[in-house]
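Quick one, T. Sequence first:
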Amino acid sequence: MAKKAPYKTRQMTELLTFLKSVQGSHVTVSDICNHFQEEGIAVGTATIYRNLEKMMKEGLVAKYVVEGTSSACFEYIGTQEDCERPVCYHCKCEKCGKLIHMQCDEVENLQQHFLEHHGFEMNSLRTVFYGVCRECRKSGI
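Structure tokens:
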């Protein structure tokens, strides 16, 4: 018997389309709600959460929770057939709270250094660098 494709509602399709359009970025449920409101698409907050949970179980979406933040962030990562999930780190602005997704060879070198010289393996999905983002530095907040 052939494996049945997961059932997708119109709301899930809209959410998936949006997440793919911002692939490589982190978005909160609030960001998603604002997008749908701006586009005139009627999707409730509970529906967004429910669909994000389904997508996480299917391996399409990753959820990031950074301690000290009130909102979880989500990122479309696709399926393993689409791409290999990259190593990512996060930068959190201490002024505006923005969470920045970062892929950087230099940080990966640091991760390798910690492992080889200190026997410590960093968890890239939970590693967060704190500081002040470019926009906040420019605006002097």
